[in-house]
Amino acid sequence: MYSKENTIALQDSTQSFLKNIPDVLTSKEETEKLRDALRFHEYRYYILNDPFISDGEYDQLFKLLERTEKQHPDWITKDSPTQRVAKELTGNFLTVQHLVPMLSLDNSYNEEDLRDFDRRARQLTGLDSIVYSVEPKFDGGSISLVYENDLLVRGATRGNGVQGDDVTTNIKQIRTIPLSARFSDYGLQQVEIRGEVLMNKENFKKYNEALIEKGLAPLANPRNAAAGTLRIKDPSEVRRRNLEVFVYHISDYTLLPGKDTPKALLSHDASLQLLWELGFRSPVHEMHVFRSIDEVIAYCREFEEKRDSLPYEIDGMVIKVNDIQLQEVLGMTSHHPRWAIAFKFKARQGTSKLLNVEFQVGRTGSITPVAKIDPVYIGGVTVSSISLFNEDVIREKDVRIGDTVLVERAGDVIPYIVKPLTELRSGTERPITFPSHCPACNSTLFKEEGEAAWRCVNIECSAQVVERMIHYVSKDALDIRGLGEANIKKFYELGLLKDIPGIYKLNFAAISQLEGFGAKSVEKLKEAIEQSKKQPLHRLIFALGIRYVGETTAKVLAQKVNHLLELKDLSQEALQTLEDIGPKVAGSIVHFFSNEDNLKMLQELEALGVEMNNVQKQTHGSGELEGVTFLFTGTLPTLKRSEAEAMAEAKGGKILSGVSAKLNYLVVGKDAGSKLDKAQKLGTVKIITEEEFLKMINT
Prior knowledge:
By secondary structure, this protein is α+β, with helices and mostly antiparallel strands. Helices cover about 35% and strands about 20% of the residues. The longest helix has 20 residues, at about 30-45. The model has no long low-confidence stretch (mean pLDDT about 90). It comes from Mycovorax composti. Its cofactor is Mg(2+); Mn(2+). InterPro entries: BRCT_dom, BRCT_dom_sf, DisA/LigA_HHH, DNA_ligase, DNAligase_adenylation, DNAligase_N, Hlx-hairpin-Hlx_DNA-bd_motif, NA-bd_OB-fold. This is DNA ligase.
C-alpha cells in the first residue's frame, strides 16, 4: 500500500509533528498531512502489526487532530481518523438491501464431496482441469462493506442474505477497516466487499477474564462475541472489544466513466492482493492457488491439523474457482454459488443430558452454578462439568435439569452449553433453583448492584478459605508443586492446614504418615514450599487473590513498589494513575490493604521467610538481556511458555505480544504456526530454538 518513498516521507512528517506539537494546526494543508500520517500509522499497527511509533505518540497526534478539527469544523473530512468515534446509538438498526445477495456456501465434509464439486465444475465449464484458490473459513460474523468514490459509506450484517442491518457506525470502530481506499486508482467508482468480523483468541481470553473479574458471565466463544458486538448500541463498547476484519471477496463493482475492468479483478487471488495493497486485511498469506483437486484436499487436511495454533477460530476451508470469468459461467443456485464450496472441519459440538447442578463457592465468595452432564467427547477431551456462570445465564438460556443440551468446545476455549433442545423435553425436566444461602457456610447470599454474581460475604467461609489457598499455590501464582487442589482439601479436612501462612508451618511428620506420602514425596513438597518463598513479587501479589487483580495488574503493582507493604500507603487516586487500573480495581486494592487481618497475614508470611522485597526491580538494569525483546510460540520441548518468559524477564528481557519490527528473538517450538510465518516474512527477527534460548540465558 505504501511505497518505500511514501513510508519515509510519512515517517519524516510524523517526526516533524512530534518535535513541536502545537495547540492546533493553522492550515488546512497541514491538517490533511496529519490525517495522512495517522492513517499510515493505523495501517502499520492494525494491518501489519508493525508500528513505527508508540501508542503515546499516536495519541498525541490524534489529540492534535481532534483539537484542530474542533476549532475548524469545516476542515473535517468523512474519512478522518476522528470520524470513527461516535456517540451511543439510539433506536433500532435500519434494514438495508445488499447490492448482491449474500448467499450461503455449499458444505462438504469429506474428500468425496470435494471431488464431486470438482467433477461438476469441470463438466459445466467443459474443462479438463480448473485452478482453485483455497483460504481459511473464518468463524465470525459476516459483513458487507460498500465504498463509493473511495469512501466507506455503509457496513451491514448478513441478515437474511438479501437484507441486513445497517451497522456502519459500529463498523467504523474496527481499525482494520479503512474509512477510505483508493479504488479510483483502479477505475472503480463503487465497490461492495464481503468480509468476516473476528475476535482473535488472545483478545477473547483477555476480555472474558475481565468479565469474570467483574462477576459477569463471559462471552460464549469468539464467533458469538464478534457477531453479537456488531449490534451493540454503544460504539465505545465495540471499540473496547478489539475486533478485526478479514475481507475475502469483491461481490460487486461499477467502473468510473471510460474505465475498463482492472486485471486484478479477473482472478480471485489477484483481487485479494488488490484489497491488501489498498489497506485491507485479506487472507493473502493464508491463501494458496492449486491446479488439481488432490492438492486442494492435501492443503485442507494440513490446515485442519494446525487449526488450534492459529490466532483465530476457523471452522473449515473455502475452495473457490480462481478465474472470475469461470465463476460467472458456473453461476449460482438460489442458495449458493456453484463456483465455491466450504470444506468443514470435524464438529466440536455434541449433545448430552444435564443431570444436576452444583453450586461452588469461589475464593472471592462468588457462587458459580456448575452443570453436571453425561460425559461427552468433544474436540479431543471428555466433558462432564460445565460452568453456567451465574443465575442470569440460567434464566436467559432457560436450562433445566433433565434437558438434552447442545455443548460446544472450540480450540482452547472452555466448554459451554449453547442451548437446551427444548423440542426434546418430555415434561419431567425441573427448573434450576438458585440458593439463597451459601452452600458451604449457610450465610445469606448478597448481590452487589450492577453485578450478576451472588456472593457469600463471610470471610471465614470454609469454601473461600480453601479456594484462596488453592489459588495461592497454583501454577501462575506461587507454583507450589505437590500441593494442588486435592492435597489442600485433604490437609484442610484433616486439620493440618487452616490458612495461607499455615502452608509454611505444615507438620511434615504427620503428612508422612498419610497414605501416598513417602519420604521422597514429602521431601519434594518441603522443597517446593521453600522455593515458593523466593518467587518474584508480582507472583506473590497475584497469589493473594485480590479481587480484580490478575497477572497483568500484579506486574504493574510490583513495578510501583520496592516492598509489598508499600501498597497500603497508595491512595485510590494514586493507583488509578497506573496502567489499566480503573476505579473498581483501585478500590479493591485499597480495600484489601486497609483490612487489618490481611496486613497481619502478610506480616506473618514475611516472618516465615516469604520474600516481599521487589528483588527484580532492585536489580533491574543490570540484566544481561536488558532491552532485548522475546516472543515464544508453539510447544517448547522442555519448558512451559510461562517458565521461558520468566527466565527472559529475570535477565532483563521484555516479552512482546506479537511479531513486529520491535521483536529481536522469536523462540519456536512444535506447531509454531502463523507467528513463525510472519517473522520469516518480516526478515528482521532472529528465529531460535529453545536450546539456543537456554544457551543465551545461561551464558
